[in-house]
Amino acid sequence: MLEALLELYPEATIYTLFCERVKVTASVAARRIVTSWLDRVPGIYGHYRNFLPLFPAAIGSFNLQDFDLVISSCHAVAKAVKAPGALHICYCHTPMRYLWDDETGNIRLHQRLALGATRAALQSWDRRSADRVDHFIANSEFVRNRIRQYYGRDADVIFPPVDIRFFAPSSETAREDFYFAAGAMVSYKRFDVILEAFRQIGRPLLVAGTGPEFHQLQRRAGPNVRFLGWVSDSELRELYRKARAFVFAAREDFGIMPVEARSCGCPVIGLSDGGVLETIRDGVSGVLFETQEAEALAKAIGRFESKIWSNEQVRSGVEEFSRERFKEQIRRFVAEKIQGLGGAASEGTAEATSVGRRT
After folding, report:
1. Does this chain's domain 2-161+322-355 share its CATH topology with 179-319?
2. Domain residue limits, the chain
3. Which end of the chain is more exposed for a tag (fewer CB within 10 A), N or C?
């Protein structure tokens, strides 16, 4: 999404709390990147969750008063950037999960204790900081409802961009007899549900990804499951192209991977909740199951295997998630909001944890 914004605003500057430059793409690394004082804290890259209570002060250290348009890309604190006099549009991936959802199982004990001591204050700050935003964009209707619930604000929905040209079927690749799951190995992704379902049904499963639960999940997997670890984008595409179906048990705000799979013609067996309800049609591009339980998933796999699936059917309509559509919707949204101000701002934006150009 950041790359797409930078294509729209090629002279923009990126503002971000911290940046491990060796891990960003070449097109992002080529831009001017301004980091906060957090970037100089030892250990920040590997242990940034420990510093969550400091994020509000760090984002507050930026003052974008020399910009007339700011686009913040926010799943935590970016929307709180100070931009007096600027039109501030926030693309919200989600209100901060650690603050508003009961997902502390994703973090370690000392992190849970620290968050518990500061949660009420951070929630109050998070609500107030939403007032610094002129207009919200949500990445799904699911997130739009969360923004309304936690911030009392409305939002327009613009789906994030998926590279549907890269993630596409291949006439030279045939489906094989295995299922596929992938993602960060953290508790809310519910790989435990997937592993238990496949233990029950005995079908072959390949799992890609890394994370804090990797070794624990490996230990509980049956002999029909193989862990691949981290895979490249090209390897991921091949897995989408070859798998019978992509299995997804997380309650996600949007969920890019199910759309990538669908774009490759790979049906999705996914949880009937969150963003998946907006990207996967039951019986058309995949099969949905109601609860995060192994038995429900196993039954869904049985329903999946009773149907015949084609690449064309699964992929149909995926253009609504394209990079081009995203850019056009962002361009139109920004133009409408500028027109609503009765003036003409510059072509640049500033993304607080994102992009900008001085007027």
Report:
1. yes
2. 2-161+322-355, 179-319
3. C
CB 346 within 8 A of CB 355: no
Q: Tokens 């070794």 appear where?
A: 215
Length of the chain: 359
Q: Which of 104-118, 255-269, 319-333 has the lowest mean pLDDT?
A: 104-118
Report whether 293 contacts 192 (CB < 8 A).
no
Structure confidence at residue 99 (pLDDT):
78
* CATH no. of 179-319: 3.40.50.2000
Give the separation between CA 51 and CA 322, rounded to whole angstroms.
35
pTM: 0.88
Locate 170 and state its tokens. Answer: 């291949």
- CA atoms in the 13 A half-sphere facing the CB of 118: 17
Q: How far is 130 from 91, CA to CA, in rounded Å?
A: 12
Other C-beta atoms lying within 10 Å of the C-beta of residue 96: 18
Helices marked H in 268-322:
276-279, 294-305, 311-315
CATH entry, 2-161+322-355, from 3.40.50, 1.25.10, 1.20.58, 2.60.40: 3.40.50
Over 50: is that where the pLDDT of 181 sits?
Answer: yes
From the number of C-beta atoms within 10 Å of its C-beta (0-12, 13-18, 19+), residue 228 rates as middle
